[in-house]
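Appendix B. Raw example, untouched.
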Amino acid sequence: MNAYDGGAGPPREAEAPRGPEAPAEDRHIRDGLSGVRAGAVPDGLSGVLPGAVPDGPPAGAEPRGGVAALSPRYQVVAALALAVVAVAVCVHVGMVFLHVAPSNTVTKKHGKAIDEYVYPEFEQNWKLFAPNPLQQNIAVQVRADVRTADGTARTTGWFDLSAQDGRGIDGNLVPSHTQQNELRRAWDFYVGSHDSDNRSAGPRSTLAETYLRNIVVLRLERGEAAGRGGTIERVQVRSRTTNVPTPSWSTDKVSSKPVYRVLPWWPLAAGDTEGGAR
């Protein structure tokens, strides 16, 4: 027999048996995608389909970095800061160059200004390449005439400033430049500009004396050598030099007796005490 009953119309496909109803989440996804047809782009997928234009910078463009990434206002600030640093570096390099260069027209005319800039912090020397390293220990010591808060005048004992710096350096992985070099360089500066009788031996002798005096006065004030409320009236500096002992295998003999170099007393003006030393 035919699948249909004479002329009742075209045959119909047999309906598939109904299974269990899909969960609500599946129905929601199915209903949301039911409107997708050829050429239609669901929301949220436009940036990943061919021909779509994603948000953001064009493809292949490199993101800006450094100063270019700043706003115009900060670009101006950064440019000014770089200009100031560049000028400072050029001035410093130029001053040091003129200081170490042979005598010329510029140094003859502006030599004093160059020396005031370079000394003593930026002094140039060749001790790194000395064929004979130092074989002596030099300690800088100071004492002072003080007047205490009750009006009593007295002379202090000798303060070993080099020993104080040594204690600050010993065991310190990152000692400061002040602890390592300030006092030592000040003493070298003074000795290099004065003869053995402490008389001026160069045009920088006054500067060297002032520099050393200010350092020792500041150290005494920090240590309250005059006591609370007291004042320092004058100071005296000396050096204590001892030879480094020779190694056991050496046949050289050196004296272990210390040698002292005592400087004259330096009176202090009112501005040189109570934090006025510079």
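End of appendix B.
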